[in-house]
Amino acid sequence: MKCPSCSEPMEEGWIETESLVSGVKWRKEINSLSRIGVGGERIYESNLWGIVHIKAERCPKCRLIVEKY
Ligand SMILES: [Zn+2]
To answer: In the chain, where are the structural domains located?
Structure first.
């Protein structure tokens, strides 16, 4: 995939994060409930050790990451 900003080739890789209970969620806005993890649309589950891996591509020059879920 080419970077949508500069058109250079993007690197393939993984975003890795820890989230034992909720996995990774998508939110349209941050509010008082989101600060304690209530609500949101879960888009990735965590594994048994609470780690989430998200397949993505990035452009280090533009600091842009593109991810499809
Ligand atoms: Zn770029």
So the answer is: 11-67
